[in-house]
Amino acid sequence: MKLRIAVAVLVIALAPLLLQTPYWRGILIVCAMNVLLALSLNLVIGYTGQLNLGQSAFFAIGAYVSTILTKTYGWNFWLAVPVAIAAAGVLGLALAAFAVRLRGHYLAIASLGFAVITYQVLINWERVTEGVRGIYGILPPPGFRDQLALFYLVAGIALVVYLVLGNLVRSPIGETLRAIREDEVSAASLGINAARWKAFAFGVGAAIAGLAGCFYPGFVGTLVPEAFNIVESFTMMAMVIVGGMGTMIGPVIGAVVLTFLPELLRSVGELRLLVYGVALTLVVLFMPGGLVQIGAALRRKPA
Amino acid sequence: MKRTFRFFAVAAACAIAPLHVTAQDKVIRVGVLMPISGPASYFGVMGKEGIDLALEQLKAGVNGYRLQVQYEDSACSPLQATNTVKRVLEQFKPHVVIGEECSDASLAIAPILDQAKVPMLNAGSVTMKLTESGYKYVFRIFPNAEQQSIPLAKNAYDKLNARTAVILYEKTNAGNDNAEGFEKLFIAAGGKVLAKIDFGRDVNDFTPIATRIASLGKVDVLPTFALEGQQVRLAQALAQAKVVRGGGGNAIQMGSIWLPYGFDQKAGQAAEGYIRIVQFDPTEKRKAVQDFVAAFRAKYGADKVPTHINAHAYDAVMLVAEAVRRGATDQESIRDRFSKMKDVEVTTGRITFDPKGQNSDLSVIHFVETQKDLSWKGLSW
Amino acid sequence: MTDIAALVAQQAINGLYLGCLYVMVALGLTLIYGVLNQINFAHADFVTVGAFAAFFVATRFATKALGLADTTGYLVSIVVAFGVGAILGALVNAAVFAPLRERGDELRPLIATIGVSVLLENGQLALFGPIPYQFDSPFTRETIRIGRIFFTQQSVVVVLVAAVSVAALYAFLRLTFLGKALRAVSQDRETAGLMGINPSLLIALTIVISSALAGMAGALLGPVLVLTPFAGASVIVKAFAIVIIGGFGNLEGTILAGILVGVIEAFTVQYLGSGVIDLVVFVLLLVMLAIRPTGLVAERKEENV
Question: What residue spans define the domains of chain A?
Answer without folding.
Answer: 2-226
